[in-house]
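Task: fold both queries, return tokens.
Query 1:
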Amino acid sequence: MSRANSIQFEEHFQVRKTTRFYPRVQVDTTGCAAVRQAGGVLLTDTIRAAGLDRALSEALARWRKPTAVHDPAEVVLDLAVSLALGGDCLADVAVLRAEPGLFGPVASDPTISRTIDALAADAATALAAIEVARVTARARVWGRPDTQPGHRSRSRSAPSRSARFRPRLSLSW
């Protein structure tokens, strides 16, 4: 590989502007080690594809302050992703905060604590709202025609991967 081509590949990640919680990431692993938090990227892509980010944002809208920078749903989802990556306390979202190119802006520890306090103040209602969002996202995923048993793909040769493998995502708080 020539020096010019080598320089061309030094930019490994490309983040586009997004209106969603997590930026869409394109990874070029040419000449570098694999991304350390690949599982987190897969999880955020799954959250986005299932519509859980939007559903949770709608469900937790009553807890969003008018001047807030971080949506309560974003905080809850960041905590869920940090737990999936092995975290065991609120401060472990620092793993996500350390990778803004992959996970976007992550709330500070005090903001996370205030959000959790606000949700805990009316825990029954907050948990019910989270359940509504979960059910909404699950219905969206399972309601897709290409995820239903017996669905025929456009290709006549073999069913699509999504028709053969039924997705399963379970987030419990």
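Query 1 returned. Query 2:
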Amino acid sequence: MLIDWLSPNRAPSVLADITASWRVGVAMAKMQSVRPTQLIKVAIEDTVPVGLLAWECYPQGRLITCCVVRDERQRQGIGSNLLDVMKRHMAESEHIREIVVNVPEENLTAQQFFRANGFRWVETIKHSAGDLYLMRIAKQASECCDLLEATVCVESRVSTAM
């Protein structure tokens, strides 16, 4: 399976392909959640798109706006592979501290998926269209502080050497 960047202008057609067997309302909602300002990764197998992950950037992290996998390919690790790419990017970046996602309260499958991938419930957001669970995965405190601690150690060695 290949995971690659997807141009935002191609996202609607790829999403339509992935969600072709879904109820029209659900598929349309997913298509509207992807905007031109987002970063998008697509999972491709034998030239067929099988999954898509889209997110927006903010100073300390990333907000997942769309995570979909073709119906017949769900529960085969595709969504987890897409998230792993994002989590590796977080681990390698000193600026990205967290990844968050809003999951509809009634979507227990999505909640279980994100929990299985390390996300934890933060709070419930009341919304007129239905409550959302804010879920989050963050760097461990030690990961966030490694650079700071290394700087403090070097500075203390320099000051004691003088």
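Both queries returned. Flag for query 2: Residues 2-97+139-161 form a domain with the Aminopeptidase fold (CATH 3.40.630.30).
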